[in-house]
Amino acid sequence: xxxxxxxxxxxxxxxxxxxxxxxxxxxxxxxxxxxxxxxxxxxxxxxxxxxxxxxxxxxxxxxxxxxxxxxxxxxxxxxxxxxxxxxxxxxxxxxxxxxxxxxxxxxxxxxxxxxxxxxxxxxxxxxxxxxxxxxxxxxxxxxxxxxxxxxxxxxxxxxxxxxxxxxxxxxxxxxxxxxxxxxxxxxxxxxxxxxxxxxxxxxxxxxxxxxxxxxxxxxxxxxxxxxxxxxxxxxxxxxxxxxxxxxxxxxxxxxxxxxxxxxxxxxxxxxxxxxxxxxxxxxxxxxxxxxxxxxxxxxxxxxxxxxxxxxxxxxxxxxxxxxxxxxxxxxxxxxxxxxxxxxxxxxxxxxxxxxxxxxxxxxxxxxxxxxxxxxxxxxxxxxxxxxxxxxxxxxxxxxxxxxxxxxxxxxxxx
Length: 414
Description:
Elements: E1 2-4, H1 5-13, H2 15-23, H3 32-49, H4 57-66, H5 71-80, H6 89-109, E2 116-129, E3 136-148, E4 154-160, H7 168-172, H8 175-187, E5 196-202, E6 207-211, H9 217-237, H10 276-314, E7 318-321, E8 324-336, H11 338-345, H12 359-366, H13 371-379, E9 381-393, H14 405-413
Parallel strand pairs: 1-3, 4-5
Antiparallel strand pairs: 2-3, 3-4, 5-6, 7-8, 8-9
Helix pairs in contact: 1-2, 3-4, 3-6, 4-6, 8-9
């Protein structure tokens, strides 16, 4: 199987989108965020590729301005998703000014002549063999920038135009950077993982974060990728569904109008849906009942707490109302002293049956051992939690003075 980091990442974010994009080959116009990000990347490539006569800051900004897309380009995604509104001229202006601000900040902190840039937009391939199946998979990708550092090590840099910066622990597990490291090692086999520095540069904040992967990170990422590829192949082979995974990313997904998780939202734009009116009524009725139930549950909890307090105050375990009665009792949960239980059950060959001390299995096992052993095991338990529960019954109970002679006779005979 031939795939890429972006495809693997798409699958992990949403299998349904992966199917639309990689299997069904349904192409969608780029979102405005993607168009913006691509242009910023292209401008930075221009900035570092004009060696040794590197461009000035004005020339870099001029490149960005010259290649800024026409309004029609940004509106392409609107036609594909009727739920999205058009991008106003003011919004386009804000995006453009944000791009210029990012580039200026980056240029001031990263003058191009201060770096030894080995490659830009570097394509790579990594061959990974699955030991279980013997199949070899090819992973392809593009690295934004590779620098050679003064200590003869190398730094992989990937640019990010988004605002979210990950934690250090998340960065250390970053799939993209780990895959890039594999790609560079494949290109230059003499390099060891510790010879490669992995960094994400967040242009919005002007900050570069560097990963510090664990020594076994390379092997872990190989296993993770192979597991993911095997999962994809299994779904294709056995015709299993690629389930959608709704998230905030759906707001930028061009496949939303055809996605099972969203296409019902667009139903008014589709004609001829059978039973639509009836289904809509039932959906709304169900949601209305759920909303009422949630409100009722909140009120029930509030009333239960107040009734419990009243019962404690009055020394009661049961209270009666017009529609039935409520009963309150204390329940306990137990933990067992493992070594004691093991010593008691091992002679009967029963310890293996209850290694995790599952209460149901232990109860069954105790029915199969002598009475004295059962009692000894019960003595080996201690209360781990004690709590009060309240149960309710809608069976009406008449007050003593209201009961008929027949009621009293029935009660006495019980």
